[in-house]
Amino acid sequence: MDRIKDLLTKSLAYTPNKDASFRYQKTVDGNIVQLDLLTDLPRIKEDESILKVYGANSTLDLCLVDGAKDLKDHVETLRINLRDGDKVESFEITVPMPPGSFC
Question: Measuring CA to CA, which residue among 56, 65, 43, 66 is closest to residue 4?
């Protein structure tokens, strides 16, 4: 989790949103870009909506959402390449495709 938080806040220049702890944002060409950290994990308590994930030096809040199983084939894997000088780091994230968001 520490590496993800470092990527978001340092390399990608997102800042935590003051209203939603699981949301990061930045401004690109005058437009606000928001990134929500969502996960579909079992809830310990029914009314639990935020899961705090601890790293060695930091924490990340993830918003618990339901229904990932209903997306079936409506997900897409994105490969992100982060360049820092001569070093390139790659990672993948899975996101719902627009049709999957309306199922």
Answer: 56
- Determine whether 80 is exposed, middle or buried from the number of CB atoms within 10 Å of its CB (0-12, 13-18, 19+): exposed
Does position 19 have pLDDT exceeding 80, yes or no? Answer: yes
Between the alpha carbon of residue 102 and those of residues 4, 34, 68, 69, 74, the distances in Å are: 28, 20, 12, 13, 10
Backbone angles phi, psi at 51, to 5 degrees: -110, 125
> What's this model's pTM, rounded to 2 decimal places?
0.67
Average pLDDT, rounded, for the chain: 83
Place of tokens 């699981």: 22
